[in-house]
Amino acid sequence: MTIFSKLLALIFILMFVTCVLYVVFGLATVRKLRKNPKTKDALGAEFVSGWDIINVAQALAFPASWINKLEESQLSFLYANAKILRENTTRLDRILGSVFYWIMMFSGLAGVMLVLLNSLGFIPE
């Protein structure tokens, strides 16, 4: 097995964990937030079905300073309202959202970087 194959297998395992966390976070947290009248309109723009799950996870995962920068931008309507979401979620929901979001970002970016580095010849056979 080459180093590329081993790294690819690790990334696929992380992507599978991300898929499981996506479903669990969507069922456990976002469904509850969709039913709450205070939070129903604070989940951000939903381009495709399920995008609000990623919006909520991002709002719960980012530090407050990053969220403040996003809320001050002209595109703030695209993002979930972190202040309202933090008030209406439990600590477990916030941890689950953060873990899901950062594993999703890491596995996605690592997969792209692995393919790019392999195609440029930086990964030995």
Q: Can you walk me through this structure?
A:
This protein has helices spanning 3-35, 51-61, 64-72, 82-87, 91-119. It has one domain (3-119). The longest helix is centred in the N-terminal third of the chain and has 33 residues, at 3-35. The mean pLDDT is 94. 25% of the residues are buried. The chain has five helices and no strands.
pLDDT averaged over residues:
94
How much helical structure, as a percent, in the residues?
A: over 70%
Q: What's the Cα radius of gyration? A: 17 Å
Distance between the termini: 9 Å
Q: Ranges with pLDDT <50 over ≥5 residues?
A: none
How many domain regions? 1
| Count of discrete alpha- or pi-helical segments spanning 4 or more residues | 5
SSE run:
HHHHH
Q: Work out the number of β strands.
A: 0
How many strands, what sense, and barrel or not for the largest sheet? Answer: none
The computed structural class is: mainly alpha
Estimate what percentage of residues fall within beta strands.
under 5%
The geometry reads as elongated
